[in-house]
Amino acid sequence: MRIEDEIKQPIFRDEYQKAIINLVYTTGWLQLRQATAFKAFGLTLPQFNILRILRGQHPLPATVALLIDRMLDKTSNASRIVDRLEEKKLVTRTVCPANRRAVDIRITPAGLELLQQMEDSGVLDDALPKGISEDEARQLNALLDKIRTEDGATPGTPSCE
After folding, report:
1. Is 41 within 8 Å of 123 (Cβ atoms)?
2. The domain made up of 40-125 is a member of CATH 1.10.10.10
3. Which residue range or ranges hold the HTH marR-type domain (predicted)?
4. pLDDT tens per residue, range 70-82
5. Among 24, 62, 129, 158, which residue's beta carbon has the most beta carbons within 10 A?
6. What is the pTM of this model?
């Protein structure tokens, strides 16, 4: 459905304004679809994001600073999210002996298994409807990357190891 019809706004200042509104609206739409799908696995979007990052680091640990740096939603509270994942036995925390303020975070076998179950269920594939081809998805990725022309990435924070 066209953005004009979704938000009941037939006129935009220009195509740039329309594109920004369309991006914001579509982001919310995708997040709602993912949140609904992840609920069946007892996870929130930010929790899934942390597990995804930790799986990418596995078997190496991560720090909270590294998680914050790599999170998709920079406004999320990484420490609280890790607390909840630890309660669910999906991650572990180890205090660094050399620096007691530094904490290494690792995904557990249960966390890895949950991510595998999610992938096997197809829930991750269903977030973006199959209405676009792989070539269109590639074009979309290129355009989204082009929007973020200024590279704000910073190197990851090393762990205690």
Report:
1. yes
2. yes
3. 13-149
4. 998 877 799 899 9
5. 62
6. 0.79
